[in-house]
Amino acid sequence: MKNDNLIRIIENCLFIDRAASKIYEKISKEVNDRNEKTFWDQMTQEELEHIVFWEKTLELAQNGVLPNIFDDSSKIIEELEHIKTNTQKLMDDVF
User: Cα–Cα–Cα angle for 71, 13, 92, nearest 5°?
Assistant: First the structure.
């Protein structure tokens, strides 16, 4: 059975990780130190792996395959949407 709250949680996580990958990629392009560039490139790669995970997880949730594992999914959604709002503000400042 499809769970809309679980889908919202996953969509928020996906948004946050996509934003993080873009921010990390931008930082990597702007730093001059090779070690710093390597660090931000690795961070970007890790976020890209997270994105693949969330995309696959979202598909499973949309197909009703995943159970809701959260005791209070409404609270999780509220917290994630707060993070998403702050992340969007950061994206607006950076880009």
Answer: 135
Q: Please say if the pLDDT value at position 2 is more than 90.
A: no
- Residue ranges per structural domain of the chain: 4-94
Q: Count of CB atoms within 10 A of residue 72's CB?
A: 9
Instruction: Tell me how far CA of residue 23 lies from CA of 38, 50, 58, 76, 95, in angstroms.
Output: 15, 15, 23, 24, 9
pTM for this model (two decimals): 0.92
Our measurement of the distance from residue 7's CA atom to the centroid of its chain's CA atoms, rounded to an integer in Å, reads: 13
Confidence of residue 74 (pLDDT cuts 50, 70, 90): very high
Cα dihedral angle (59, 62, 66, 71), rounded to 10 degrees? Answer: 120
